[in-house]
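Reopening this one. Same input as before:
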Amino acid sequence: MRDPRISTLAKNLINYSVRLQKGEKILIENFGLQKELVNALVQEVYAVGGLPFVTLKDHQVDRALLVGATEEQQNLTAQFEANVMKEMDAYIGLRAGDNISELSDVPSEKMALHSKTVGTKVHREIRVPKTRWCVLRYPSSSMAQLANMSTEAFEDFYFDVCNLDYGKMDKAMDSLVELMNKTDKVQLIGPGTDLTFSIKDIPAIKCAGHLNIPDGEVYSAPVKNSVNGTISFNTPSPYQSFTFENVQFTFKDGKIVEATSNDTDRITKILDTDEGARYVGEFAIGVNPYIQHPMKDILFDEKIDGSFHFTPGQCYDDAYNDNHSAIHWDLVMIQRPEYGGGEIYFDDVLIRKDGRFVIPELEALNPENLK
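Same output, byte for byte:
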C-alpha cells in the first residue's frame, strides 16, 4: 500500500510545482530507480490530461559511461537528450541513490566535458529557460545516514519539508524580493567572513516550490566585478562527488584570487574550468523552517533556515549578471548562533542577525511563521 504522503507529493509536484495542463508533455527523469514516486507522478499526469514520458537512469551506469567518455560521445548524448527535451512543456528530475560519491573517481576533465555538453546543451539552453521544471530528491537510507538520522525519522523529516505550505511561503517572500530589488550594497559578516558586493538592478527571484523540492530561497546575483573581501563557508559541500570542507575564498573586483579547502588542488582545478568559474553567478538567502542542519545534499542545504549561499559560476537568466561558466557551485554559510552567528546588511542596514530577520517587514520569513 502506497504511503499517502507520496500521493500528496505527486499531486503537489504536478499541480503546483510545474502546473501541468491538459495536453502538455512532461519528462520525468529518475536517477536511482525509485519507482513508487515515478508511478504516482505518471498517474497524476494522466489525471490532469497530460502526456507523461519517463527516463530511468542509474548512477553506476552513468559512471561507466563517463569514465570512458569522448567528446564525440558526449556531443551525441547531448544531441539525443536535447531532441527529447525540446519537445517537453515540463520536466521533473527525481534524484536518488545509495552512494553520493559514485562519480568521485571520474576524472575531472570528463566531468567538465559532461558539463560543457549535456549540462549546457540540454539543461541550461533548453530545460531551464524553456520548460516548467522541478528537481527533487527521494529519501533513502544513504540520505538518512548523511543527515545522522534513522531511516524512519528521515522519511518523516523529508515529507515535512517537501509537503509544507509553499503557497504561504511564496507570499511571505514578497517583502524580501521588494527589499532586494531596492538594494545596492550587501555586506556579509561572520567567522572568517567580511564580504561586500552590489546587487543593484539585478532582479531578486523567489523560490517557493516551483523549481526545487524542498524549496525556500530568494536569489539574486552580485554585479560581476563588485565582490570584494573574504568568505569562509561552514558547511561541507559535495561537488563532482567529492566533499569539500573549510572552503575559503578571497575576492578582488569580483574574481576569486585565492581559494583554500581540505583539497586545495582539487578546488583550484574546478575554479580553472573556465574564466567564469572564478566569478559569482548567484547570491541567495535560505529560509526553509524545517531544514536546520547540513546533510551534504545541496537541494536541502541551500535552503537551510538562517543560511545564505554564494555560487561561483553560471548565473541565471532571470537574475543575469553576464557571468558564464560550465560550473554552478552553491556553497553555504549558516549564520545561526550554533554555527557562529553572523549578519547581513543591505545598504548598511542590518536585516538579519544570527539567522533571524530583524526588521518588521521580513519577520514573516522567520521559521515559526512559515511552519
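So the earlier flakiness isn't reproducible anymore. For the record, The longest helix spans residues 108-130.
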